[in-house]
Amino acid sequence: MRNHPLRCTEFVTIGALTVLSVASTPASEPDRTAADALTKPSVSLEVVLQTHCVKCHAAGEEPAGDVALTELSNGNVADDLDRLQSLIDVLDLEEMPPEDEPELPPETRQELLAKLQATLHAAVAATKQYPRTPIRRMNRFQYNNAVVDLFDLKCIVFTLPERMLREHRGYFQPASGKMPDEVFAGSRPLGKSQMIEPRLAGVAAFPQDLRAEHGYDNQADHLSLSPLLMESFLKLGQSITESPDFEPQNVGVWKSFFAAPDDGADLDRVVRKRLKPFLTRAFRRPVRDALLDRYCQFVQRNLEQGTAFPVAMKAVAAAAISSPRFLYLYDTSSESQTASPVDDYELASRLSFFLWGSIPDSMLLDLAAEGRLHQPDVLTEQFERMIRDRKLKRFCDSFPSQWLQLERIISSVPNPDEFPQFYFLKYRDSMHMMLEPLLLFETVLIENQPITQLIDSDFTYRSDLLENAYGQLAVDPKRNGRGVQVVRFRRLPIKDRRTGGVITNAAVMTMTSGPERTQPITRGAWLAGVIFNNPPEPPPADVPALGEKPAEGEEHLTLRERLSMHRKRSDCKGCHEQIDPLGFALENFNPIGVWRDQYENGREVDMAGTLLRKHRFENVIEFKDALLAEKDRFTEALAGHLLSFALARPLSAADRVALDEITASVAADDYKMHTLLRQVVLSEPFQTKSFPQVASNSGP
């Protein structure tokens, strides 16, 4: 979400002088916005730039940080909201000034932040513009869910390997508000048996949509539709309705849609009566008469040619689920030059695809038809209903694994000679590890616990194998179960705060390590991106990777000492100041998540550091305390992840105003998970659209 090209002391100086000069200028108009005020400073911005900045940031071949500040003037300081947000971030995260530059006095920093944030809020309020979400198709996960819901299938359409956590024996019951103390689960990589589930025979899935570099697998700018894929969708729709398993016992809407009517019935009337609600559900809004006529005529032609009624209805259903109106997600066009409210049907789709990964149900569409869904009390009521529905499992099957980037653990292969205990039979402990943080997330969600449990939980779920894998950090390591199909996970109290939460679990420790050593830089980058939503810039291409083994003559060094050479480069220094304290805070966990106090060479592990230059920690428990001291920052970061997932687009500076409001509301309610999700739904970006691309008014 955050991207900081402005990493220089000079630019902080610009911001300080500019904003302070604005603060000292009396406003001549009471309603003048902060953005307007910035165009009339008492100190010339150009003079400040010439005096302090152009030496490094002049427009030329290679300005520092690729930022040419000579383009900045009195009239455009508040025009670029992303640049303004970058300045706010580097000040707020205390990334500027650099450690070797004079420290900015705390009171000055806070005053600057307050004024810059006020400028941002005023500019967003004045422009009322958010990034638009391009038209996009459903991803594979959403398509499967949408077809299941449309036909009320008693099985899935095709197997989804991306579902990491497989529910067994129906433990997921959100209506109960309680997770069982013992759950039975599985993991797809544990074996082919995890893929054996009721599905439509003869239906082949289209390729999996991978997680976007900037977010999730539902991001609009990654979900294009090539001619080849469009052709595959046409074949896919036919293969679904022509599957031998697409029969009355598996299709919940068979009687109301596919079954032949009584003899003597008016077929034209029957077809129209059945198609209208079906197409409304499939296309997520009422269908126009002209479009309904085309689908009815298609059925009538088939019937006139002697096609059996159920077969003709299967053919029209296949056409419907191959239509761009079904496949594509989009907002209707608007003439407004600023953000305008989405209509109730668009709101219903946003809500259902966010929480259920699928099309809206009849209740949402009925409320949209009545024009009531957007009413805050009605919307809140529907939100509460939806998070207690079992379809919420789809949110848990999609968001947390991508947020935590858990797909990385599938390719983790610790050296079997150094870590033989990681392997059993032909399987790996990581297949059990990946389920622990996912079960924690599901519990926090179902039980509406504070999101701080994700940082420092007082409980966890572990299998017997996983308990043994933790070594001295195990709660009850006596059992030795090594299940690979249906695995029992028990809810255990955390007795040692060195473990618990998503940060210090074995899955994250393993997937952020190499085959033979930990990778503090990778761990720090993971923490910066996942926990603070502030991923670092990619490293320069010419920086050599640190070897898994120490070079000759470096065997006596700690990993921190070996990595210190990377901080000597000026283009690496800024990022290392950000991520090194985060990564080394977890250095006591070895490459498979087992606690250690010493390296193999006998040197003590040095994990001490300072978070955000103000929270000193000497051990991992103090590190967690430091993170909890910044729980509002974590709340805002998680809200940003959720909002990006909900809107299927990266966030911009304009969205930060909504994130501030969400954070304040969540903090006021003890950081409860339901409150966070509810506030995302009630936020202005979620309920508005800005300059949407024009949707086609024609289609098959």
What do these coordinates show?
The chain is mostly helical. About 45% of the residues lie in helices and about 5% in strands. Strand 6 and strand 7 form a beta hairpin. Helix 27 runs antiparallel to helix 28. The C terminus is likely disordered.
What order do the helices and strands come in, and which of them pair?
Blueprint: H1 9-23, H2 34-37, H3 45-52, H4 54-57, H5 81-92, H6 106-127, E1 136-137, H7 140-151, E2 165-168, E3 182-187, H8 227-241, H9 254-258, H10 267-283, H11 289-304, H12 309-321, H13 324-327, E4 328-329, E5 340-341, H14 344-355, H15 362-369, H16 376-386, H17 393-403, E6 423-424, E7 427-428, H18 430-433, H19 435-446, E8 459-462, H20 464-469, E9 487-493, H21 506-511, H22 520-530, H23 559-563, H24 570-584, E10 609-611, E11 615-617, H25 620-629, H26 631-647, H27 656-668, H28 673-682, H29 684-687, E12 688-689
Antiparallel strand pairs: 1-4, 2-3, 3-9, 5-12, 6-7, 8-9, 10-11
Helix pairs in contact: 1-3, 1-6, 5-6, 8-12, 10-11, 11-12, 14-15, 22-24, 26-27, 26-28, 27-28
